[in-house]
């Protein structure tokens, strides 16, 4: 047996090495656990626990009858993980026809230096999405994201607005009620795997999102459909540039329909080149209302007690207003002696000026302001204009303005302001705040938006008188456009279009009919406004057929019995 | 107390331990009987086994949690997929219900035409006495046996309710208080409804 003993020196060396190793390890442990403890813990937590925003579900939008006008559907977003692409050139070639971008464009996007991940297209159509899945291209990913969709296309598009790429509401009720319908994003701080997916049942902090409320509009899709069809027909018939129709419930201020042409399809908002198309002309485009404004002038004269329906006036061929300018009636007609009802029947400019003069500047302008002119109506839509109402003493007001304002020139109103003002006559003198949302429902329940009375403008007696006068106007002057069996209070307007160079365009008009019915118990206030009609410049001819058709269908739709029905006797069947 | 030089075994302990002090005897009585002695090795083994069991249980639990986590994620995915499908179906329903679609089907496929000519007629309602009597609803016949069974089991049988008068369609707008009633032809068709 060999007597071999390990040299003591070697043992000491090994021991020394072991001690050094232990010291090194100890140092690292001390370094990690004590010196860098805080920083490393934070880094570890940051790697494992990541905070992310959780998008809420955007609420749906329904019409007054419960039909869905806006909802959410999933749509894929296609993106490229640059370092996983096997052949960028071929990938670009294959994707180009499916995502509507050129191959060169895609190639440039996926070969950008310093980019690891590129979004190539958002909100793909279903068929394109499926085709890209079938291609199974390496490095190309499809991720679902919500897409706002409007099942009825361009139906009521100016009322609805749209939701942009950031899922934020723009224009219409989408914009005005974005905070309510859009909800509140939540936060999730959770442990994640190396792919970034949250590990279920692992430790996490969860601040859930609050889903958006469902909106119910006052817009009745049946009325809106009637109105849009009537507007399209009128524009086609008149070869007009556009138009606007509003139907309002004068007793509540609810907007039952609001249509404009031209309009847009909110599903394809990204294809619209001219952003002005998104503006709602019914609330945002002020225009000179022309003779429809005489209804307000006359009602203020009646309220002031300076005229009655039978008061007579002889305006002669013209009137010279301050500044020396002569004002004529349309077509320079001299109506001679006429009653106030005939002033409205003839749409006499000189008669309206005379009524305003009798009313007096102060009372007249106070009255117009009380009608809500010169201020936004407060409708719950984005982009409302205040219109232009120059008041005495202001820079853009002259003493001549007082006279031209009387027949609807020298001021500008939005279509909604005009309808809302004439609703005062239909509602016994009370000005209502117009609105398009009747209620919204979230997790806490339903919130109803009640009708709001702004203030009283006229007495009930004045309203009855002006209604009778306007009903006579309809039955005498616009008899061609009456609805058999019903009385409707109506006034037409043929407004000239101001030129930016001063004065008015010689060949451009805005034809409109404004009124409410049935006269004995008004349920609807309607404005039909046709822009630049080519076949007939006159309001009654341009807007009359649409106006008649709308009232006829409204009465049928809502089952409103006629005041002058044909009498018959029913025989019950056995 | 008398002790031996070596650690006594259990059988010996009874013999050699003689307790003379009455106080110690009393405390000895309170001490539980020691059936086996734990030496160091046994203690280590027990602790090791206990730790192993705890670790295994922990692993089993972790595996179970992970498995449930995957199941939970899969269910969440299913829920998400079904929600998306539901949204798509809702969208399809809304498209089919749109008045444009209905109008196209009515005029294009069914050959209907928009109702343009209509007349409201005031109808004088005849006195109630002249109206023919409504047919009486007879209750369903029940045999004696059925009645006894019902009484024993406490089961009630549903009977056909009295036919109530169908309420008139409520228009969205406040109806006019106009006394002209009823108006034949003043039905409330949905907009876009067409008549042949």
Q: What is the SS-derived class of chain B?
A: mainly alpha
Helix content of chain A: 25-40%
The biggest beta sheet of chain B reads: 2 strands, antiparallel
Sheet of most strands of chain A:
7 strands, mixed
- Straight-line N-to-C gap of chain A: 134 Å
Please count the beta strands of chain B (DSSP E, at least 2 residues each).
Answer: 4
Structural class of chain A: alpha+beta
- Would you identify the regions of chain A where 5 or more consecutive residues have pLDDT less than 50? 568-574
Tell me the helix content of chain B.
Answer: 40-55%
**N-to-C CA distance of chain B:** 121 Å
Spatial extent as radius of gyration of chain A: 35 Å
Oligomeric state as shown? heterodimer
- Give start-end ranges of low-pLDDT stretches of chain B: 1-17, 160-196
Describe this protein's structure.
The complex is a heterodimer of chains A (574) and B (196). By secondary structure, chain A is of the alpha+beta class. Chain A is built from 18 helices and 24 strands. In chain A, the strands form 7 sheets. In chain A, strands 2, 3, 4, 5, 10, 18 and 19 form a 7-stranded mixed β-sheet that branches. Chain A has a 5-stranded antiparallel β-sheet with strand order 12-11-23-22-21, with helices on both faces. Chain A has a 3-stranded antiparallel β-sheet with strand order 1-8-9. In chain A, helix 3 runs antiparallel to helix 5 (126-135), helix 9 (221-238) packs antiparallel against helix 18 and helix 12 packs across helix 17 (460-476). Chain B has 5 helices and 4 strands; from the N terminus they run ααααββαββ. Chain B has helices spanning 10-16, 22-30, 40-97, 99-109, 144-153, and strands at residues 113-114, 121-124, 183-184, 194-195. Residues 1-17 and 160-196 of chain B have low confidence and may be disordered. The chains are: A alpha+beta (574), B mainly alpha (196). At the A-B interface, strand 3, helix 9, helix 18 and strand 24 of A face helix 3, strand 2 and strand 3 of B. Strand 24 (566-569) of chain A pairs parallel with strand 2 of chain B, so a sheet runs across the interface.
